[in-house]
């Protein structure tokens, strides 16, 4: 009747419980009760009664070692090999044996590892030479679902896949659940459970990176600004992992947002639900799912409800429309851009985080060409080059869906590239955005750069577009064509100001300094001239048809329904925006260290910014490079101002052996203050040398050296 009776079998002096279906073939009585598949090497036992799982099926490598620890001797045998195959040894050698010969070739399924087994569990047909039966008792695997024994690893993987396709994922073994060793991490008043190896994406389903806290805060500020424009908005976290981002949205913005957290991994979805309950949030499941434990149906909805879905990100973005979509896959986001722009609503926001910095930062240029269709090289402005590469891919994906974009924010830091764009529906907006994707001419000698002019006509000498004269003074070809890249603005000043206000309101301390730098960079001004309060400009600021909310304007003033009215509004908004914000920030930046003059001490960065500003150029610092200067000055003028205010170091002067005086300025030091000069003069006056010192400090150093 299919009932299995467990029996103790003594192997390697260990008492191990194994099913009767796994006894040796020489027990003829049990052999009649077991059904056998004739055309395969699989011994299957079909029983609805649970049984003890085989010792080769474990969760951790340490569990296998514990089976060997049952023996109190100093030398311990392998629990999965007979004595004839592997003799008892010390623990360190046994650990290597279990790891290399059993654990590495195991088959994983739902947290369990089906390790390879060398015990006499599987009946083998008798060989011509009867003495070689034991030698032919080869390695095999035990299925965790149906207790079948299979020889090859590839056959075992296919066997498990057939179970999954049939919907048979429940194990028939009596499995004792291991206690969950979760860690609770708190970020922005939100608690999430993570696994101990949560920082390694290859080894865990619940990937949580604490270094991406700044990225999550920036995305939250962008969503908070959008929530202030229209309520409620439907937002999607397409790659939930632990659900930390969606939980922060729902916990702080409450009824302003309807949060959907999606992940294609079943373990991640389970952890997202547990984290929702941990933060006292209700879970809204799909119609197909039935779960009455702390969940609500489609009819009951409130501000503390989060919808959790389990499907591919492309599928959910094809099926449903959202106002805010965030993409944060492991690596590049280009595979999900077409789906994201397909159903995103007009004037909605799409944000994407790209972590494939090896290709974006020109370390793997062939990968950047394959993923983004862009040719890039390593330059001094490589981080901004990466941001413009991603935006160019976003623009092309939006244009394929007859949508245009406006870049609200572009951040490139050490671990990620974040791009936030607003979606503008219509072919006109798509054409305007597509025209801003151009090629870049980059000089490899002086690193001067300029975007190629609009038009399809081929120029006879494209080097004429570069401001530098390296092509005439240097042999060979000096420039390279990079791109296609986004040539428009990377920031929206009004949006960044409102993000800064949201960061102050919600106490996001890490995002505030960066947002201030971004706002200064968007206006191309220094921090001294930046002001967070500009009441005179608030009523004038307009972003692609969306008026900034002021006390004199209501929420309905910028929501115009109807296709024709919205297009007219966008056209009028674009005209007014060109008139008011005609001066975009200049593209790219220069590194002051890269262009410093040898043998000269360059001025401090803040002083150099003032010098460029006094020369009549727009100038600001940039978040892409701490020593970078964003300015509309050509490289030649940049070097001229840098040379003018640099001081010589006089390294070679002391090498020639001039007369060294105690009051002389050392290498790399600035001119001493007047008080220090007087002190040194007083000290030397006692020795009768005050006249010499006075002559030294009243004349310049070249004159003094010539006198010597």
TrEMBL record:
Compartments, as annotated in UniProt? Nucleus, Nucleolus
User: Which keywords does this chain's UniProt record carry?
Assistant: Isopeptide bond, Metal-binding, Methyltransferase, Nucleus, Phosphoprotein, RNA-binding, S-adenosyl-L-methionine, Transferase, tRNA processing, tRNA-binding, Ubl conjugation, Zinc, Zinc-finger
Reactions this protein catalyses: guanosine(27) in tRNA(Tyr) + 2 S-adenosyl-L-methionine = N(2)-dimethylguanosine(27) in tRNA(Tyr) + 2 S-adenosyl-L-homocysteine + 2 H(+)
Protein's GO biological process: tRNA N2-guanine methylation
Domain annotation C2H2-type: ranges: 143-163
Q: Which InterPro entries match?
A: SAM-dependent_MTases_sf (IPR029063), Trm1 (IPR002905), tRNA_met_Trm1_C (IPR042296), Znf_C2H2_type (IPR013087)
Q: Does the keyword RNA-binding apply?
A: yes
GO MF terms, alphabetically ordered = tRNA (guanine) methyltransferase activity; tRNA binding; zinc ion binding
What PROSITE patterns has UniProt attached to this entry? SAM_MT_TRM1, ZINC_FINGER_C2H2_1
| Biased composition regions of type Basic and acidic residues, renumbered to the chain | 26-39
Listed GO cellular component terms? nucleolus
Q: Which Pfam families match?
A: TRM
Stored Gene3D superfamilies: N2,N2-dimethylguanosine tRNA methyltransferase, C-terminal domain, Vaccinia Virus protein VP39
Taxonomically, which superkingdom?
A: Eukaryota
Region (Disordered) spans which residues? 16-49
* Family the entry assigns: Belongs to the class I-like SAM-binding methyltransferase superfamily. Trm1 family.
This protein's name: tRNA (guanine(27)-N(2))-dimethyltransferase
- Species of origin reads Platysteira castanea
